[in-house]
Amino acid sequence: MAYQVLYRKYRPQSFKDVVGQPQVTLTLQNELQAGRVSHAYLFTGSRGTGKTTCARILSKAVNCLDLQNGDPCLQCEICKGIENGSVMDVVEIDAASNNGVDSIRSLIEEASFTPSKAKYRVYIIDEVHMLSDSAFNALLKTLEEPPEHVVFILGTTEVHRLLPTILSRCQRFDFKRITPIEIAERLKYVCECENVEIEDDAALLIATIADGGMRDALSILDQCIGRSRKVTNEVVRDTAGIVGRDHLFNLCDSIKDKDSTKALEIINELYSNSKDMMKLCSEVSDHLRKLMLIKTMKKPEVLFTVPQDEMVKLNAQAMSMGLAEIINAMDLMRDCLDKMRFANQRIELEMAFVRLCAPEMDTSMDAILRRIEALEKNRPLVTENAVTEIKEKVKEEGLMPKETLPEKKEEPITEESPVSAAPAVSDKERSLIEKAVPFNEWPEVLNKIKEYSRATASAFHNSSAYVSGDYMLIEGSDLAFELLRKGSNKDKVREAIFSVTGRNFRLGPYRAAKAQAKEEENPIDALVRKAKDAGITVTEH
Ligand SMILES: Nc1ncnc2c1ncn2[C@@H]1O[C@H](COP(=O)(O)OP(=O)(O)O)[C@@H](O)[C@H]1O
Ligand SMILES: [Mg+2]
Ligand SMILES: [Zn+2]
């Protein structure tokens, strides 16, 4: 006999066997017993919580010739016929599959015919939020005036994507995440039937990893049993722990490292191992969500459960990425999932990752925000603290009377003076250069400049730039500085910088060699210089 995966083999056949959803099963049983049948049911809730299972039970129950306590008898010819497919009046449609639309069309055509054997023709439409607009509208018309002998059971994981017009026509049932205890109990029951030993701890660990979904729990158990007929904590850890999620860590690393080659290689490998691309996409989303929660919450573990060693790895990855970067990636993954419905799923996923790994392709406002975030990470600012520190120092050293300590004000070093490539390097300029850090988005700025004037852009050929406080220091040819002296050119350059960084920088030249050439200054000069840099006017002695 062919091996049947556990979650199929142990799909409950009657409401009383469904775990942890009494608000659904008891209600339905009571109504069925009272002879009340709706024309449209909506089952919502996360994956693997029993929606499809209950839809199938219900499809038998409304037609069963010998209802038992609101449960189908599973013995009568109708129950048996539905099960073995000889009674054709129960139709399952997966709206997520490619032929979803066609199925809906033929459904609507045939819905008006009376059922062949059963009392009701039952349409189970899974993942109904995935229907295209046209299919949806067609369905809506039928839902408005359903034929007497038709029952619809709609299933969805994303109820917020359904139109109110659909919601208002259905009797809605919300499936909850199943508690770890309930899942663990079910796992132990399955193991008993399968003649497999399982430790209590191990069952609970699987249950927490499955995060409320029975299907995932049973899949993990399946893999564990594949390794060992004695399921211990250790076995679970090896099977379902980080090992199983390495590719998610690696994919997110590729986003962080802007390494599209690596991302494409990983996707290709998973694809060749027949990984479902949509599933992969939502797994990446899930993983990114965990990173987001870690970055924003003090106790993220209340919102998701992972084994300890995976938490350590997640923490490290969360620390290495910016929040804007993570949220942007989540955005792109969601869009990607949407697009996958109508396109080649693998190509969509590849495109999404190439985009994520090449931010220069992305000129949206969000992208700009991310660049600022990246920039701020690299920029040692003169903080408010540093300013106060220097002020205190100046007071202590008695360099100037307290009452004349002015507020931080702009130094007279202007955009004009340094731009005019003067040979002398002022103290201010030198200290700016000392604090400068390379500005990596300079090529992007040059691209912007090119849009405005190719000539100006070519003058900046081979140039580079540094950020120091609110200055952008440019290292380039004399020709470049010549051009910069013209007000309109300068404005364009500043505009280009603004469009990339979102900040208004003052411009200046970067003259590292000259700055370094200056000899050691004496300590008091250094102090005065620091004070000046901090914007304090110091009376020179
Ligand atoms: N509430 C539940 N009680 C017992 N088993 C369940 C339950 N929910 C899901 N399962 C198991 O998971 C499998 C998939 O469940 P399914 O009903 O298809 O989930 P979905 O909510 O995604 O439609 C079932 O075959 C069954 O083995
Ligand atoms: Mg389902
Ligand atoms: Zn029956």
Which SSEs are present, and which pair or pack?
Elements: H1 6-9, H2 22-33, E1 40-44, H3 51-61, H4 77-84, E2 90-94, H5 100-110, E3 121-126, H6 133-144, E4 150-156, H7 164-167, E5 171-174, H8 180-194, E6 197-198, H9 200-210, H10 214-227, E7 230-231, H11 233-240, H12 246-257, H13 260-272, H14 277-296, H15 308-320, H16 323-340, H17 345-357, H18 365-378, H19 384-396, H20 416-419, H21 427-435, E8 437-438, H22 442-452, H23 454-459, E9 464-468, E10 471-475, H24 478-484, H25 487-501, E11 506-509, H26 512-517, H27 523-533
Parallel strand pairs: 1-4, 1-5, 2-3, 3-4, 6-7, 10-11
Antiparallel strand pairs: 8-9, 9-10
The structure holds adenosine-5'-diphosphate (ADP), magnesium ion and zinc ion.
Short characterization:
Helices cover 55% and strands 9% of the residues.
CATH topology of the largest domain: Rossmann fold
Helix-and-strand structural type: alpha/beta
* Percent in strands: 5-15%
Any idea what the CATH superfamily of the largest domain is called? P-loop containing nucleotide triphosphate hydrolases
Give the overall average pLDDT. Answer: 81
CATH architecture of the largest domain: 3-Layer(aba) Sandwich
Largest sheet: 5 strands, parallel
CATH class of the largest domain: Alpha Beta
Number of domains: 4
Query: Which runs of at least 5 residues are low in confidence (pLDDT < 50)?
Result: 379-384, 397-423, 515-521, 537-541
Give the tally of β-strands. Answer: 11
Number of helices: 27
Within the largest sheet, what's the order of strands? 2-3-4-1-5
Q: Could you estimate the helical fraction of the residues in percent?
A: 40-55%
Provide the gyration radius in Å.
33 Å
Q: How far apart lie the N and C ends?
A: 98 Å
